[in-house]
Write a structure and sequence with these properties.
3% of the residues lie in helices and 49% in strands. By secondary structure, the chain is mainly beta. It has one domain. An eight-stranded antiparallel β-barrel has the order 1-2-3-4-9-8-7-6. The radius of gyration is 15 Å and the shape is globular. The model has no long low-confidence stretch (mean pLDDT 91). Bound molecules: manganese (II) ion.
Length: 150
């Protein structure tokens, strides 16, 4: 796991986002960033394998059960991104304002290729949440569903 794709997409002379040179594999943090890019979305990230595994959630992470929201897997981000808030300049990848919508620790309850279940301890998101990969035709399907399960 690495943040190579993350770094390749960005010009760190222009964007205030972290380069993520220092990784800490032991941290267990989740974060949801509200990102006012060309389309408003929420970036859900959890620290796994020394990076922040990331999904873009167009309609936001559901706070009640029985709602299932699309979560599109995006490139791994450096752990330092969990502290990032700021304005990504016009013309740069992901241009727009990023603010932290929720943040906290989490416990990993289940993890397979198709399913990740976590207990979140945030200010807004509390309880168990599941990410389930679509049974898509494409080999590298990036589409998941995120839902609150308890
Ligand atoms: Mn984003």
């Amino acid at each position: 796991m690495s943040t190579k794709t993350y770094r390749e997409k960005r010009n760190f002379n222009k964007t205030p986002e972290p380069t993520g040179s220092a990784e800490d594999a032991d941290s267990k943090v989740f974060i949801v960033q509200e990102h006012q890019a060309s389309h408003l979305h929420y970036d859900f990230r959890i620290s796994l394998d020394g990076v922040l595994k990331s999904w873009a959630v167009p309609k936001g992470v559901p706070t009640e059960r029985k709602l299932r929201r699309l979560a599109v897997e995006t490139e791994d981000h450096p752990l330092a991104y969990a502290d990032f808030e700021g304005d990504i300049p016009e013309g740069e990848y992901g241009a727009g304002k990023v603010i932290i919508w929720d943040k906290g620790s989490f416990e990993l309850l289940e993890r397979t290729d198709k399913k990740i279940v976590v207990a979140l301890y945030g200010a807004k998101l509390k309880g168990d949440f599941a990410l389930v990969r679509f049974a898509g035709k494409e080999k590298n399907a990036k589409n998941w569903l995120i839902m609150k399960v308890s």
